[in-house]
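Shapes recur. Our protein:

. . .
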Amino acid sequence: MITLAQYWLGRDITHALQLGTDLRSNAARTVDLANRLLVLAKGAGVRLEESPRTGSIVTSGWRPADVNASTPNARARSLHISCEAIDLFDPDGDLDDWLLANADTVLKDLGLWLEHPAATKGWAHVQTKPPRSGRRVFYP
């Protein structure tokens, strides 16, 4: 299970003044939905791994604006800034493959959207807010 500490990646301490009530609420929802997703994935036999870099399955959680600006290939209006997105370690694409195959059920039922795996090699990006296209699986 993902904890809020794993989602924060220490930024709740280093950027504490930027972390308001709305962000904390968004993060709690994101972590809860990600945990529900991971329980379903594990139950379906998906192999889940921890990132050697972070020590958890979370590779990117909350990104304050300055962290996001220095993150390679991050979008200026990334939902990581508002705690409405999470990246999950997926080195072999097992989680992404399962999510693609179950987008109309699992993602829809949980109220999550998936960035297309072609754009996220090595991790699965899920978010709690729909993209502009409204598509359950979308390209950035």
Q: What stands out?
A: Residues 21-43 form the longest helix (23 residues).
